[in-house]
Amino acid sequence: MSTQILPETTYQIPEGDLVRVRPVREEDLLGMEWDGEFAHFRRLYKQHFQNSRSGNTLIWVVESEDGEIVGQVFLSLLSSQSELADGIHRAYLFSFRLKPDYRNHGLGSHMLDFVESYLVRRGFDTLRINVARDNGQARRMYERHGYRVIGPEEGRWRYQDQFGQWQSVHEPAWRMLKKLK
Ligand SMILES: CC(C)(COP(=O)(O)OP(=O)(O)OC[C@H]1O[C@@H](n2cnc3c(N)ncnc32)[C@H](O)[C@@H]1OP(=O)(O)O)[C@@H](O)C(=O)NCCC(=O)NCCS
Description:
35% strand; 181 residues; two-stranded antiparallel sheet; globular; eight-stranded mixed beta sheet; alpha+beta
C-alpha cells in the first residue's frame, strides 16, 4: 500500500500530562520495550516497524511531556491473514497498550476514536480486535465503543525473542468487530 503522511493527535490527561499520539520513529523502538518489560518483543517490533514503511502496518506511539514512550497502537491494513486485514475494507488493531499510570483516564478511548476516524477517511468499513478472554476490562471498553464478539480465537502464535529463541504463546481470545459505517 502507498505510504502516506499519518495524522497525529494530542490528549490532555485530566490533571496530568498533555500526551502526543504520533507515528513511530526508528529511535522509539527501545522505548517501546518499557525498561525491559517488553524486550522479548524486540525483533517483532523491528519487523512491524519495517512493515510500517510500506504502509501495510501503521504504528502510533504515545509520548509523554518528558519524551517517554508510554503507549502504542498497531494497525494492520493489509495482512497475509486477509480475514483480518484486506487492504480495502477490513483492518485489524493489535499491540494496544498504555503504561499503568496512563490507563483509565480516557486516553485509550481517545486513541480508538482517532484510529477509527482515520480508517473511515481511508474507506475501511470494519475494524477487528482480538482481546484475551481473561481481559474483561479491555473487552468492556471495546463493547462501550461498539465492538461485538464475533467468535473465539485460539490465540496460538510464535515469535523469536531478543536472543533468537522461538517462543510459543497460547492466549485464548475473543475476536471483536466494529462496523465503522
Ligand atoms: C486497554 C487500554 C489500552 C485502554 O486504555 P485506557 O486509557 O485505560 O482506556 P479508557 O481510560 O479510555 O477506558 C478505560 C476505563 O476508564 C474509564 N474512563 C474513561 N475516561 C475516563 C476519565 N477521563 N477519567 C477516568 N476514567 C475514565 C472508562 O469509563 C473505562 O471504564 P470501563 O473499563 O468500565 O469501560 C489500557 O487500559 C491498557 O493498556 N491496558 C493493558 C493492556 C491491554 O489490556 N491492552 C488491550 C489488549 S486487547
